[in-house]
Design a protein that fits this description.
- This protein has 309 residues and is of the alpha/beta class.
- Helices cover 36% and strands 22% of the residues.
- The strands form 3 sheets. The chain has a 6-stranded mixed sheet with strand order 12-11-8-9-10-13, with helices on both faces.
- The radius of gyration is 19 Å and the shape is globular.
């Protein structure tokens, strides 16, 4: 029997969902994330789920969590409400009446692109997810996204690019990747070097398209930062390709890709120069990956291949 698998990404601004039936995405959509608090956000997920009558639900959340207990980690969510320690998995399962799994949004992004997106058919892949407020990551080894019970395996956004660099509000370190390539970081770096204050990252890329030298240099710096991290990771782990996606990827990747490829080509004898691929599922990748994710054993394991239907 063909199962109906629903994935929901609980984003800061939007709840996005994807319904997978068989080998295809049958439906997808989004709604604004409720600002009124925790229970309102959960109600929105439950309404979406009941409307699609899935056999299984997967929910992608930002930040750390405990997949063994199904609870949200300390400071994990950027949503309104007391999320730390909340039993999100069990509460949703009770409300929607079907097996439910939760996982980190970046690992869900990687799983979606591995199963049905740009990395389909590949075995060893690095994933970078660029958002306005942060940077996530994931790694696939032998066709599986590596994960752990706390779902923190793959936090590439907090690897150091520039020791002693800009302080990172997310991790407390300095000069990590997130201080270069999140949407907020790109805007902040542009404002520090220009008399103009853009409202968002697309304003910076629009300025680059108009030939603004500061915008071009800031985006090039961001591309080099991504390249440095991917190049280092590819030296440590077997890597066929690196997939870049996320909310702001469509805007910034065209301006960063040449610099990323240049850095990836610097030591081919060590890294074998992995391909750089743009995510093909767009902003729907985390929802797709959440839908396809199987329950995680207590021991470290992959989040699973495309499940049998």
């Amino acid at each position: 029997m063909v199962k109906r698998l629903l994935g929901v990404e609980m984003g800061v601004d939007e709840l996005r969902w994807a319904l997978i039936v068989g080998d295809s995405i049958e439906d997808k959509g989004s709604t604004e994330t409720p600002r009124a608090g925790l229970l309102h956000a959960i109600d929105a997920v439950a309404r979406t789920t009941r409307g699609h009558r899935p056999d299984r639900l997967g929910v992608a959340v930002p930040g750390d969590l405990n997949r063994t207990t199904g609870t949200v980690g300390v400071g994990s969510m950027n949503l309104v409400g007391p999320w730390a320690g909340y039993p999100l998995r069990d509460e949703l399962a009770y409300r929607v009446g079907c097996p439910t799994e939760i996982l980190n949004d970046a690992r869900a992004f990687g799983h979606g692109e591995l199963a049905m997106g740009a990395a389909k058919g590949l075995e060893n892949v690095l994933f970078i997810m660029l958002h306005r407020g942060g940077v996530g990551g994931a790694y696939a080894f032998e066709g599986r996204i590596l994960a752990s019970p706390d779902d923190r395996l793959g936090e590439f956004g907090h690897l150091t690019v520039e020791p002693g660099g800009t302080p990172c509000p997310g991790c407390g370190g300095r000069g990590c990747l997130e201080t270069f390539v999140s949407g907020q970081a790109v805007v902040r770096r542009f404002r520090a070097r220009s008399s103009w204050s853009p409202s968002g990252v697309t304003a910076v890329t629009d300025a680059a398209a108009d030939g603004d030298q500061v915008a071009l240099e800031v985006l090039a710096d961001s591309g080099r930062a991504v390249g440095v991290i991917l190049n280092s990771l590819a030296a440590a782990f077997p890597t066929q390709a690196a997939v870049v996606g996320g909310d702001i990827a469509d805007a910034v990747l065209p301006w960063m890709a040449d610099e990323i490829r240049t850095v990836l080509a610097e030591r081919p004898s060590c890294t074998f120069e992995p391909d750089l691929l743009a995510a093909s599922l767009g902003v729907w990748a985390p929802a797709v990956g959440a839908a396809l994710t199987l329950p995680l054993p207590v021991r470290m394991e992959g989040v699973g291949r495309l499940p049998e239907q």
